[in-house]
Design a protein that fits this description.
The chain is mainly alpha-helical. Helices cover about 55% and strands about 5% of the residues. It has 2 domains: about 10-145, no CATH class; about 150-230. The longest helix is centred in the C-terminal third of the chain and has 27 residues, at about 205-230. The N and C termini lie far apart (about 40 Å).
């Protein structure tokens, strides 16, 4: 899959922009780290992810593996801990936007994937206030990261956030300069569709595919209309 710097993040990243709960977040002082690879949010412990991209949970018993595998696991462990620490810092920040801007280079696709795992766990555990705080914080972090991305990537992310057809139409009309038939936007969209189609175990696969195919249909119709207008 393409990286966040060259393509939109995965479905779980995009979903941060769609807040699903409305309860008030905890105060900033209630957020802290709770050991290695876990978060404590408002006195509620958010479980550590069982796996990050196939890597074993680092709280579990040691895994017997080859030297190269040990190196891979060690690197994954280090990145998971760094991502957890950054997420904790964002959660307790008085100004999330400024903190995200300070760490924008660390807001990688892998960071959002790890953070989304905490979000999924919070949802499964029924921690609605935790879910709200995580979604709000990660939405801000993603918005900061998006300012560093190509406009075509920002356009695709925005279209994925626009759940209503009229909102997508408005976004498309405001960005027609990126919709020529051979544009980077359509290359990006095609790669994204192919990538999601291959993710057979992704629980969001069908929902995201439906969104992407609708975006593909709507944007290509506009692109064809523009081409017909130019040919006249």
């Amino acid at each position: 899959m393409a990286t966040l710097a060259s393509a939109p993040a995965s479905a779980v990243v995009v979903s941060f922009c769609q807040t699903r709960t409305s309860r008030a977040p905890f105060s900033n002082s209630s957020f802290c780290k709770a050991g290695r690879g876990a978060l404590m949010v408002g006195g509620v412990r958010v479980s550590s992810p069982d796996s990050i991209r196939g890597c074993p949970n680092f709280a579990h018993s040691p895994v017997v593996c080859k030297a190269s595998e040990k190196d891979t696991v060690a690197k994954a462990r280090k990145f998971q801990l760094e991502a957890t620490e950054l997420l904790a810092e964002l959660l307790k920040a008085d100004d999330v936007k400024s903190t995200a801007e300070e760490h924008v280079d660390s807001l990688s696709e892998d960071f959002f994937i790890i953070a989304s795992t905490y979000l999924d766990l919070a949802k499964k555990e029924g921690n609605l206030e935790v879910v709200t705080k995580l979604e709000t914080t990660l939405r801000t972090a993603l918005q900061v990261k998006e300012t560093t991305l190509r406009p075509e990537i920002r356009l695709l992310n925005q279209l994925l956030r626009d759940t209503a057809e009229k909102d997508r139409a408005s976004t498309i009309q405001a960005n027609v300069q990126y919709l020529s038939s051979d544009s980077y936007f359509f290359q990006l969209l095609t790669r994204m569709i192919n990538d999601v189609e291959s993710q057979k175990t992704n629980p969001n696969r069908l929902r995201l595919l439906t969104q992407l195919r609708m975006i593909n249909k709507e944007t290509r119709e506009v692109a064809k209309a523009l081409r017909r207008k130019e040919d006249k």
